[in-house]
């Protein structure tokens, strides 16, 4: 829409500045909220991460500047390194491999199927996604618990949430998040010209060749953008893991958000927690920037 | 690939996605349901009756409604105001501002909650529902403004001219002309934010006391960790009551959000 054509010419001088201010006034409340509750806390954590502030005790009243000590501590902290590795495993396993491939597969399989088939499959996959994460965790708890459905069906007496907690949270997250990738790929595939794929078929290209040489290259922008978005969502995941395994047993499924919660909020080590928060924000920011580069933004 | 193979694969997908939730649905209407899926064919609404008490379900659901609706209302109002100049005027830093908003939507909120928590702690806001709602609104704003501006761009400026000629300022123009014309868009943004907060576990878990203010997302977790093994049928009934509004509202806005998934095409900024 071209709103510009109608906007009146901007006068110079004080009256022009006043008009500009009046025009920007509606942005005020949004800016105030975002500065107070988003930008403010981020900048504040940038400061706190270099101090030894705690929630209680003397360091809560008069914290002192400790330089990069919190970041140095992170690299020597076996629990942090463990959480970081688990976060990586969780993101790659559940998002990059799980949701992404499964979502693409479902979207590909749905092409040319009847409307009824497509809406049934879409319906159940999306239902898992719309469901609150606590309920999703509960579904998987009853499936994997010692007296749960899986053991009853297979006759195995395993306590899966203890013996394979990472597999459990990865499975649960694939189940919960695949819908997003499926929707992204359905939208992308609907824009792939059918003639191109048909022409390749006439030339004797098999299913896999058509997929690899024609379809995937045509939707590569969507693939990359989707990978960035699901990585960002998975990186910050807390509720699903916390309610399903609590990070346990021990710290066997304690990803960085859970470890950060433990240190900063349960043990009150705000400075150390803020340093971890900063690391996560920087990683998030990098992925977010790549995402911005990938999509085309029109004016 | 054979059609049959594709159909079978889709059937497997549908069954495996439905199975985990299906058991919750069945267990909710079975007396004495356990963790394992063993349908007995009995049917009773006893589980629903048992959980439909003030403390177990009604108060937490009211809390969820207050938090989600409060957040949605503030977000919609503030985003609609912010979208007006972004949609109507040529502003110098508009593009950078819109890109910054999009960038912000990618940041992990889980990380921001650490400084927010200590800020709340310091200013005595810990346990305050209004303060948490303002934080939730702020975190929903970047995406809400983005969506709202796109909906507003769809309302032709020409329609506002008549109001301008009559001497109406931007407030009247926004309330009387643009607002009503983009009512569906406003509803979509509101419902989107509402559903997002409805399922939000982390923020209320961290920022509210374990008290009377807790929304269903938190109390269902408490119930789950305390009685999950013994009263699974009741837990299932509670889950159904809590999940239903999210599903219904999603279905309502589903078709309006379809365009959001087109990542390969151009994003309107």
From TrEMBL, chain A:
It is found in: Cell membrane. Coiled coil: none annotated. Pfam families: BPD_transp_1 (PF00528). Gene3D superfamilies: MetI-like. The keyword Transferase does not apply. Keywords: Cell membrane, Membrane, Sugar transport, Transmembrane, Transmembrane helix, Transport. One of its GO terms (biological process) is transmembrane transport. Residues 85-291 form the ABC transmembrane type-1 domain. The chain crosses the membrane at residues 27-50, 84-109, 121-143, 163-185, 223-244, 270-292. PROSITE patterns: ABC_TM1. GO terms for cellular component: plasma membrane. Its main location: membrane. It is a multi-pass membrane protein. The keyword Cell membrane applies. Belongs to the binding-protein-dependent transport system permease family. This is Multiple sugar transport system permease protein. It comes from Nonomuraea endophytica.
Automatic annotation (TrEMBL), chain B:
Gene3D superfamilies: MetI-like. Belongs to the binding-protein-dependent transport system permease family. This is Multiple sugar transport system permease protein. One of its GO terms (cellular component) is plasma membrane. GO terms for biological process: transmembrane transport. It is a multi-pass membrane protein. SUPFAM superfamilies: MetI-like. It comes from Nonomuraea endophytica. PANTHER family: INNER MEMBRANE ABC TRANSPORTER PERMEASE PROTEIN YCJP, MALTOSE TRANSPORT SYSTEM PERMEASE-RELATED. It is found in: Cell membrane. The lineage of its organism: Bacteria, Bacillati, Actinomycetota, Actinomycetes, Streptosporangiales. The keyword Transmembrane helix applies. Coiled coil: none annotated. The chain crosses the membrane at residues 61-84, 96-117, 123-147, 181-199, 235-253. Keywords: Cell membrane, Membrane, Sugar transport, Transmembrane, Transmembrane helix, Transport. Residues 61-253 form the ABC transmembrane type-1 domain.
């Amino acid at each position: 829409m071209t709103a510009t054509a109608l906007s009146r010419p901007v006068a110079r001088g004080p009256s022009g500045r006043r008009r500009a201010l009046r025009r920007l006034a509606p942005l005020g409340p949004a800016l105030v909220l975002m500065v107070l509750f988003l930008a403010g806390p981020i900048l504040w954590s940038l400061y706190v991460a270099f101090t030894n502030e705690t929630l209680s005790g003397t360091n809560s009243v008069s914290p002192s500047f400790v330089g990069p000590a919190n970041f140095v501590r992170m690299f020597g902290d076996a629990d942090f390194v463990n959480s970081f590795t688990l976060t990586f495993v969780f993101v790659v396993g559940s998002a990059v491999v799980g949701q992404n491939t499964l979502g693409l597969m479902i979207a590909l399989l749905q092409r040319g199927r009847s409307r009824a088939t497509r809406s049934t499959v879409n319906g159940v996959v999306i239902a898992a996604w719309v469901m609150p994460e606590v309920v999703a965790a509960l579904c998987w708890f009853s499936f994997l618990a010692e007296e749960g459905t899986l053991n009853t069906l297979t006759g195995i007496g395993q306590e899966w949430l203890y013996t394979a907690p990472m597999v459990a949270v990865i499975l649960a997250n694939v189940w919960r998040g695949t819908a997003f990738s499926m929707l992204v790929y359905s939208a992308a595939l609907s824009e792939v010209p059918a003639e191109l794929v048909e022409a390749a078929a006439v030339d004797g290209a098999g299913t896999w060749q058509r997929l690899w040489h024609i379809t995937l290259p045509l939707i590569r922008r969507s693939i990359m953008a989707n990978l960035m978005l699901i990585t960002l969502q998975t990186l910050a995941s807390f509720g699903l893991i916390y309610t399903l395994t609590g990070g346990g047993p021990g710290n066997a499924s304690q990803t960085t958000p859970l470890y950060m919660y433990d240190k900063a909020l349960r043990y009150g080590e705000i400075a150390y927690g803020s340093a971890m928060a900063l690391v996560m924000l920087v990683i998030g920011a990098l992925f977010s920037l790549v995402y911005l580069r990938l999509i085309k933004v029109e004016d | 690939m054979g059609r049959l193979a594709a159909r079978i694969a889709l059937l497997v997908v549908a069954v495996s996605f439905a199975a985990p939730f299906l058991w919750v649905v069945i267990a909710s209407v079975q007396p004495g349901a356990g963790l394992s899926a063993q349908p007995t064919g009995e049917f009773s609404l006893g589980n629903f009756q048992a959980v439909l008490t003030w403390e177990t379900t009604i108060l937490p659901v009211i809390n969820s409604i207050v938090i989600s609706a409060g957040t949605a209302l503030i977000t919609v109002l503030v985003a609609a105001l912010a979208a007006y100049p972004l949609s109507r005027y040529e502003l110098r830093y508009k593009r950078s501002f819109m890109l910054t908003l999009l960038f912000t939507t990618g940041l992990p909120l889980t990380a921001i909650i650490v400084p927010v928590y200590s800020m709340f702690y310091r200013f005595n806001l810990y346990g305050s529902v209004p303060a948490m709602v303002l934080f939730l609104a702020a975190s929903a704003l970047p995406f809400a403004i983005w969506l709202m501006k796109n909906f507003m761009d769809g309302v032709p400026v020409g329609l506002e001219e008549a109001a301008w000629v009559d001497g109406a300022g931007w407030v009247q123009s926004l309330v009387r002309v643009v607002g009503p014309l983009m009512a569906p868009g406003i509803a979509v943004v509101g419902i989107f934010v509402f559903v997002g907060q409805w399922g939000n576990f982390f923020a209320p878990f961290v920022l509210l006391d374990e008290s009377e203010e807790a929304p269903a997302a938190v109390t269902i977790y408490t119930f789950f960790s305390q009685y999950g093994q013994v009263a699974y049928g009741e837990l299932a009934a509670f889950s159904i009551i809590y999940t239903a509004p999210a599903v219904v509202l999603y279905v309502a806005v589903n078709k309006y959000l379809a365009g959001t998934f087109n990542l390969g095409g151009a994003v309107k900024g």
